[in-house]
């Protein structure tokens, strides 16, 4: 898939929420989680070490509880770097081709993230939930299939760490890429 035109069509965090979020229902939920997300000093140190620009495309839905509980984390991670993460969001229902390409377990699940190089080559995908969230859901089998977006501080910290680990993994991939090292002369 040619990610460049899709990425360029996608929206930054705030514009995505303005375009696709319901002001009364969705925006307060997203704002609440965003305000709770904390990047620890240790995590900030990891992010400060990022050298390569990574483009990150997130397929999401403003109405989705899993997006409510994870997308603000992505935004906080993005804000905690020195412009090394270019994060954009695209609504699941806007581009059926992207939704199909990023299906998870044959479903239209969100959030799903595509990590790319600065020149739009795909490096990896991650989503729709982190390992700790799936562990929690498996232990509560019989409950709701779709998250409400309600999360505890401990859960939020764990999910933040898991997302940060994936960002760090991709950053190391970019940093050690022979092609990118040749381009950047390092």
SS summary, helix count: 9
Q: Biggest sheet: strands side by side, in what order?
A: 2-1-3-4
Largest sheet: 4 strands, mixed
Based on CA inertia axes, which overall geometry fits? globular
Give the tally of β-strands. Answer: 4
List the defining traits of the structure above.
about 15% strand; 4-stranded mixed β-sheet; 9 helices; alpha+beta; about 50% helix; Glutaredoxin; about 190 residues
Molecular structure report:
With 186 residues, the protein is of the alpha+beta class. It has one domain (3-184): Glutaredoxin (3-Layer(aba) Sandwich), CATH 3.40.30. It has helices spanning 3-9, 13-20, 26-36, 41-48, 65-79, 96-101, 131-139, 153-176, 178-184, and strands at residues 54-60, 85-91, 112-116, 122-127. A four-stranded mixed beta sheet has the order 2-1-3-4, sandwiched between helices. A hairpin with a 5-residue loop joins strand 3 (112-116) and strand 4. The longest helix is centred in the last third of the chain and has 24 residues, at 153-176. It is globular, with a radius of gyration of 16 Å. It starts with a helix and ends with a helix. The mean pLDDT is 94.
SSE diagram, text form:
Elements: H1 3-9, H2 13-20, H3 26-36, H4 41-48, E1 54-60, H5 65-79, E2 85-91, H6 96-101, E3 112-116, E4 122-127, H7 131-139, H8 153-176, H9 178-184
Helix pairs in contact: 3-5, 5-8
Short description:
The relative contact order is 0.18. This protein is an alpha+beta fold. The chain has helices spanning 3-9, 13-20, 26-36, 41-48, 65-79, 96-101, 131-139, 153-176, 178-184, and strands at residues 54-60, 85-91, 112-116, 122-127.
